[in-house]
Design goal:
heterodimer, A: about 180 residues, alpha/beta, fumarase, 5 helices, globular, B: about 280 residues, 60s Ribosomal Protein L30, Chain: A, 2 domains, 4-stranded mixed β-sheet, about 25% strand
Chain lengths: ~180, ~280
């Protein structure tokens, strides 16, 4: 069975998701990676607001290629999520409900996901063209000076993911510990 | 003596970065097709299908295989009978990268300073390795590599007493620690011997060899096969979501080393391997 996810996400939907399930993400997703995360956390630490209302939202870890002529975006596959681990708990505490990336997360992130009831989704790393075809609109929300690392608002249509870590902390990734 | 204008090198680099970023090398494409046919886990097979579909779309549309169009390494084998004319060869190479990345609509992924981290805006500078060879030929290999796999590289200065068992354990452990991050199925480059920088360089050089070409020395080819088998027993699988195929190949290069040293370097390459070779 394939779940459909559309932000803002409700706990009742997230509770149905189990690690390994397939999902199609629809609608609004915010794109942010290393530098945009650093700026968002700096904003929170100095008492400022985030550039968007994060309640129930989804963040996609991506730094897309520029759009070639006739397209709205270039290749846009997921980047390695663990680099964002250090910033993630603070965003989960403010209502972030799902993240899309690739690779495992730290125990601190998993604990925060359980605490705040969030899920982590894996998209196919390296399938940049394939995934870009499922993005139907892109606009810059903040930090245009970061170039490929700017904070973007995207619209997805049938964007395929696998639930990598569910809101109980179950993971699809192999662990050797 | 043959005179080569550096403008030619610029043009070759510019074309090669576009080819490398939009077309999988034939050996890697074949390796992925073979992996899909051998893989027994249904989800893993579906992921390999998506990866192959992505490669088809990238080539058809001239779009980059992956949004991380990488840091560009340029290996130049320069015949020592060649005289380079018309300007500075490093500037020509960087201009080639700049023009190719702009023309291809590729991402600029380089920052000026490792701490200040301001994007240079044109994906330069490249890292250039110059090697002198016999004759009059200039062979340019461009190797753009993404950071997802690059960040999982590891090097060890083992004790000679640890021998092959120690080296083997280190290589397999590197792949295990990397897990899903380097976008498996990966290609594993191993450099053994030399010193610190030589081992690292050999690990990278190993990744430039087509994956359907085992090392010419059968003893080393045997070690490559042994490592591949051990790595695929980890069960990490495509995208780290479980499966039979974690690596498509292990390529290893060796070099003489010091009586007290056993350097081992491991460089992992994602399934979206970018390399292109041009001869001038």
């Amino acid at each position: 069975m394939t779940h459909i996810l559309r932000a803002p996400l409700e706990n009742s939907i997230l509770q149905q998701l189990k690690a390994g399930d397939e999902v199609l993400v629809q609608g609004t997703v915010y794109a942010a990676r290393d530098a945009a995360h650093q700026k968002m956390i700096a904003a929170l630490e100095s008492g400022d607001q985030l550039p968007f209302d994060i309640t129930g939202q989804i963040i996609y870890y991506v730094g897309p290629c520029p759009a070639p002529p006739g397209r709205i975006i270039g290749s846009a596959g997921p980047t390695t999520s663990s680099r964002m681990d250090v910033y993630t708990p603070a965003l989960l505490a403010r209502g972030l409900k799902a993240m899309i990336g690739k690779g495992d997360r730290s125990q601190i992130v998993k604990d925060a996901m359980i605490k705040y009831g969030a899920v982590y989704l894996a998209a196919v790393g390296g399938a940049g063209v394939y995934l870009s075809r499922r993005i139907t609109s892109v606009e810059i929300v903040a930090y245009p000076e970061l170039g490929p690392e700017a904070l973007l608002k995207m619209e997805f249509k049938d964007f395929p993911c696998i639930v990598a870590i569910d809101n109980q902390g179950n993971s699809v990734y192999k662990s050797w510990t | 003596m043959r005179i080569v204008d550096v403008e030619k090198i610029k043009e070759a680099v510019s074309k090669a970065v576009i080819t490398a970023n939009t077309q999988l090398p034939a050996d890697v494409l074949e390796g992925l097709q073979k992996a899909r046919d051998l893989e027994t886990v249904p989800r893993a097979r579906r992921l390999l299908e998506i990866i192959l579909e992505n490669a088809r779309q990238a080539q058809e549309e001239g779009m980059p295989l992956c949004q991380d169009t990488g840091l560009v390494t340029v290996h130049i084998e320069l015949g020592q009978e060649v005289h380079l004319d018309g300007g500075n060869v490093y500037q020509a190479i960087n201009q080639g990268v700049r023009e190719g990345y702009k023309a291809g609509y590729f991402r600029a992924s380089m920052v000026k300073d490792p701490l200040n981290r301001i994007n240079t805006g044109d994906n330069t500078p490249a890292i250039v390795h110059l090697e002198l060879t016999d004759g009059e030929e200039v062979v340019i290999t461009v190797f753009p590599k993404g950071a997802g796999s690059e960040n999982m590289s590891r090097t060890a200065m083992l004790k000679p007493a640890e021998g092959w068992a120690g080296a083997r354990q280190f290589v397999v452990e590197t792949v295990r620690i990397a897990n899903a991050n380097p976008c498996p199925p990966i290609i594993v480059g191993v450099g053994m011997g030399g010193n610190l920088e030589k081992a690292c360089f050999l690990a990278k050089k190993a990744l430039l060899r087509p994956i359907n070409r085992p090392h010419p020395d059968p003893k080393i080819a045997e070690k490559e096969a042994e490592l591949l088998q051990a790595i695929n027993q980890l069960g990490i699988g495509p995208q780290g979501l479980g499966g039979d195929i974690t690596a498509l190949a292990v390529n290893m290069e060796v070099y003489p080393t010091h009586i007290a040293s056993l350097p081992v370097a491991v460089s992992l390459n994602c399934h979206s391997t970018r390399r292109a070779v041009v001869k001038i």
